[in-house]
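Q: what sequence does this backbone want?
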């Protein structure tokens, strides 16, 4: 009987621990919506100084853009050669960094002028890119995130898990309130990651964010997270809308 009581107590403690570590579940509420270029195959999305910036992919149509988020109008656009497939982008230490998917290079521009500076070798597939203000943080489609310096040298690697299991296909990234938000490619889910432990602390279900009436044959997946003054914006590849959202706890 004593062994049974001890075992039961142990199981209860384990279940409590598992429950405590389980990610919080959220849905989204649309606060506002804005026009978005349906031709933009969104790879990176971020605000800087109240200005929206976006990088897009696909060979032959990869670009980096400065966008008026209220109208969706592209104010300035950098086009890349057909051989490049653009990916995530971010401003860091006065530079604009933009990854490529399988070209194994990253482009560096002056953040203020968007004038080209140099091209750096990049050993992994380029997917998402963000910064915590101290390091660049990149994804490569695996369950790992890479913290890098301004020369793209890896400082540390973070393994991302949810309920003890690796979370693969981490894609577009955004740093929000001390956590890393990541789109999970091919899904309508965003995960909220502890940058120290790699544990997913929240899962955001964005199903139905873009209504069926706005979808076409070229409409692709949710991809694009940006934050400005605490306001969170989401869009997707070839979406005609960008949405300002609030989290709703389930």
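A:
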């Amino acid at each position: 009987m004593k062994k049974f009581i001890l075992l039961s107590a142990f199981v209860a403690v384990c279940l409590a621990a598992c429950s405590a570590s389980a990610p919080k579940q959220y849905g989204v509420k649309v606060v506002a919506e804005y026009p978005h270029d349906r031709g933009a195959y969104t790879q990176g999305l971020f605000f800087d100084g109240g200005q929206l910036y976006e990088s897009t992919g696909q060979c032959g149509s990869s670009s980096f853009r400065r966008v008026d988020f209220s109208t969706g109008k592209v104010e300035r656009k950098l086009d890349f050669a057909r051989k490049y497939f653009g990916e995530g982008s971010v401003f860091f230490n006065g530079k604009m960094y933009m990854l490529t998917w399988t070209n194994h290079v990253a482009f560096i521009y002056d953040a203020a002028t968007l004038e080209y500076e140099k091209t750096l070798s990049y050993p992994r597939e380029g997917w998402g890119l963000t910064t915590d203000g101290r390091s660049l943080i990149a994804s490569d489609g695996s369950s790992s995130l890479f913290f890098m310096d301004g020369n793209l040298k890896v400082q540390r690697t973070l393994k991302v898990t949810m309920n003890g299991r690796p979370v693969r296909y981490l894609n577009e990234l955004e740093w929000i309130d001390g956590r890393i938000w990541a789109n999970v490619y091919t899904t309508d889910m965003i995960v909220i990651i502890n940058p120290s432990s790699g544990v997913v602390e929240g899962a955001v279900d964005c199903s139905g964010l873009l209504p069926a009436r706005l979808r076409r044959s070229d409409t692709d997946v949710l991809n694009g997270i940006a934050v400005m003054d605490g306001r969170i914006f989401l869009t997707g590849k070839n979406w005609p809308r960008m949405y300002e959202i609030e989290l709703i706890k389930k």
